[in-house]
Amino acid sequence: MKLLVTGGAGYIGSVVAAQLIIAGHDVVVLDNLSTGHRDAVVDGAQFRQEELSHVAQVLDGSFDGVLHFAAKSLVAESVGRPEIYWDNNVVGRSRCSRQCGLLESSVLSSARPRQHMACRTGYRYEKTIPRRR
User: Which 8-state DSSP code applies to residue 108?
Assistant: First the structure.
């Protein structure tokens, strides 16, 4: 299978990408390297240094699925700059899901299954934002 791994230069995404390569899959890693590391991208994977918002430029009808691990996860930074985390982790994840859905709908005539998996953290609305003391 040809699979896109977003956040594939990060801690979780790089391990998943490595396991997919070992299993014989064709892997494309998309990561902006804001917290990931180029050295973490497994040998054998194609690497695209792109923002998550550009996922539609990478996806085409040749992909069988997307495994989504691109999220910001630095707690101290998230408290100080929550808008960045909202934009990347909530809005970015939603945009990625929609674009993956567009990929799926554009190839409905294909017999190949399409899959999208999102993993990292869940989000919920909080009435107050914790403040640093």
Answer: T
Residue 53 has which token pair? 């918002």
Give, rounded to a whole angstrom, the gap between the first and last alpha carbons of the chain.
49
Q: What is the pLDDT of residue 82?
A: 78
- Here the tokens at position 86 are 């909202």
Nearest CA among 130, 6, 8, 5 for reference residue 76: 130
Instruction: Summarize the confidence of residues 33-49 as an average pLDDT.
Output: 94
pTM assigned to the model = 0.69
Coil, helix or strand for 30? strand
Structural domains for the chain = 2-118 (3.40.50.720)
Instruction: Please name the residue ranges forming H helices in 6-91.
Output: 11-22, 55-58, 75-80, 82-85
